[in-house]
Amino acid sequence: MTYLLDTDHFSILQRRSGPEFQNLATRMGAHTPADFALSIVTFHEQVIGAHAWIQGAKNPRQVVEGYAFLDRAFLDYGRFTVLRFDEEALSVFSGFGGGLRVNVRDLRIAAIAIANGLILLTRNRVHFERVPGLRFEDWAVGGEG
Predict the structure, then answer these.
(1) Which class for 106: exposed (0-12), middle (13-18), buried (19 or more C-beta within 10 A)?
(2) Which of 34, 60, 101, 111 could potentially form a cystine with 93 if both were Cys, beta carbons 3.0 to 4.6 Å apart?
């Protein structure tokens, strides 16, 4: 395993269309599926998103769409190794201290990547460049992002 998909890159894969998807799929195609993992934190973020969609539904059709998204996320997760926020990740997370001005779930994802020696694939350069010791790349852009 070499790469951890951030929630944004995973969401691009789930859309299965558009230039970002094409860029990401092409780059991932040069690797084996075993080179990629997801974090339990990304699953948590997707569950929160589905929950918000369902709770905010204005009509029954939107409720169906929210549950369809949740079902799709559940199925898509089965294609990847899922890494826990475990004691090692907690130790890395605790070492960040305060003042990074980064969302707590993003810091947990970063901690999982660092604890497992992985490169995080993300579009969120602004926040993740603040995290000491984190290696990250953006494969959704053209070229060698």
Answers:
(1) buried
(2) 111
Task: Tell me the per-residue pLDDT of 3-26, one tens digit each, with 9 for 90 and over.
Answer: 999 999 999 999 999 999 999 999
Looking at the domain assignment, is residue 142 inside a domain? no
Q: Look at the chain and count its residues.
A: 145
Tokens of 140: 């959704």
**pLDDT score of 14:** 92
Residue 53 domain-assigned?
Answer: yes
Low-confidence ranges of the chain (pLDDT < 70): 143-145
The CATH number of whichever domain residue 114 belongs to comes to: 3.40.50.1010
- Position 144 in a domain: no
Residue 123 lies in a domain: yes
Question: What is the extent of the structural domain holding 122?
Answer: 3-137
